[in-house]
């Protein structure tokens, strides 16, 4: 390895090889909680967001705390991708709401991504229940 230590290596979104710091995790969870509250109690003026229930499942924050990626989903629906442009439009409003609720030096800029973890888990469950896989799993080792 070069003169750079393992701690200097950065992966996606600037996360070091060891993962996010405890402070990053705490701030990200606090941002997630406040965003969830804002989505629950705010009536957005954007017509695409009227009567839409959005769930914030996770927030990841950059090491410099300037950017936060919020993973969002709609319960029971998988069409959250169509809402991403509308969420981008209301991001400044949500950032203002974060600034009023959080005691941070700089409030992170919010970016939205669809959370596909539940869809992936359901797809994997469906594969595991398929007759071919069940047959292979139920074979007796001899």
Summarize the model shown.
With 142 residues, the protein is an alpha+beta fold. The chain is built from four helices and three strands, in the order αββαβαα.
Task: Explain what you see.
β2, α2 and β3 form a beta-alpha-beta unit. Helices cover 40% and strands 14% of the residues. The protein is of the alpha+beta class. It starts with 21 loop residues before the first helix and ends in a 5-residue tail after the last helix. The protein is built from four helices and three strands. It has a three-stranded mixed beta sheet with strand order 1-2-3, with helices on one face. It has one domain (6-115): GMP Synthetase, Chain A, domain 3 (2-Layer Sandwich). α1 crosses α2. The protein has helices at 22-41, 84-101, 117-128, 131-137, and strands spanning 55-61, 67-73, 109-114.
How is the secondary structure organized here?
Elements: H1 22-41, E1 55-61, E2 67-73, H2 84-101, E3 109-114, H3 117-128, H4 131-137
Parallel strand pairs: 2-3
Antiparallel strand pairs: 1-2
């Amino acid at each position: 390895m070069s003169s750079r230590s393992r701690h200097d290596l950065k992966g996606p979104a600037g996360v070091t090889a060891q993962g996010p710091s405890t402070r990053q995790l705490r701030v990200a969870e606090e941002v997630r909680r406040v965003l969830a509250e804002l989505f629950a109690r705010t009536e957005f003026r954007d017509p695409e967001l009227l009567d839409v229930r959005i769930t914030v499942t996770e927030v990841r924050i950059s090491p410099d705390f300037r950017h936060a990626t919020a993973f969002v989903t709609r319960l029971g629906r998988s069409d959250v991708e169509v809402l991403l442009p509308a969420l981008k439009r209301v991001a400044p409003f949500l950032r203002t709401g974060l600034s009023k609720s959080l005691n941070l030096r700089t409030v992170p800029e919010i970016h939205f991504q669809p959370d596909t973890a539940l869809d992936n888990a359901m797809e994997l469950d469906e594969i595991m229940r398929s007759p071919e896989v069940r047959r292979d799993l139920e074979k007796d080792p001899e």
